[in-house]
Amino acid sequence: MLEKIKKAVLESSKIMLEAENILDTIEDKGGHANFVTKYDKRVQEDIFKRLGEILPEAKFMGEEEDAQIFCDKGYLFIIDPIDGTTNFIKNYKASCLSVGLLKDGEPILGVVYNPYREEMFYAQKGQGAYLNGKPIHVSKEPLANGLILLGTSPYYEELWKRAFELAYYYFTKGLDLRRSGSAAIDLCDIACGRAELFFELKLSPWDYAAGALIVKEAGGQVIGADEKPLQFAKQQGVFAFGSGISVKDLKF
Question: Under 8 Å CB-to-CB from 76, ≥6 apart: which residues?
């Protein structure tokens, strides 16, 4: 099933690469810099169809349209058709398709594909994490030697100040900061050891359902910004980090 899902993700992501006149397809979803394009909707429709053929009994939870209902019974796909929509609009080439599969509320499979770099990250529960067929592992470096990835929670003005206060704090504790604009890509960069810590104070389940499992299977940890385990029924802040960092090293 994993190979079929990877193939479906690869095929659906071609819509991103073939997109034209993106600026003419933008809709405002409300809030600061919260946009959707017709391509977000097209990718979601396409991947829903392909995954439905692979696992007909599964339900779907996705970012776009009326597909945001969580179910903790049976199989549930949680999908972000284009994570990094603002990047996509700006042709910044840091966007991905993210597919997480839960069974009875627990993640069992995750696939994240960045078509611009042709990087396919994936994991199955208990079977490790991989990038383009090769095993990946989180960094063993401590925070002092760490690269910190952050999300600024741009849709939520009430979190801006706190996000940048934490950014400054971690900047003083680590080597430097990076901001990609895609939480799913950031989580995968933690999983493969490119950076040591990622945080964002408010994300939706489709932002992290796949990436969080990939981090865990790569030997890292992922917890909520409320210092509680991840859940997938509602929004939550997320911290992800490598094996050289512990919870006691973190400031929330």
Answer: 58, 59, 60, 61, 70, 101, 102, 103, 105
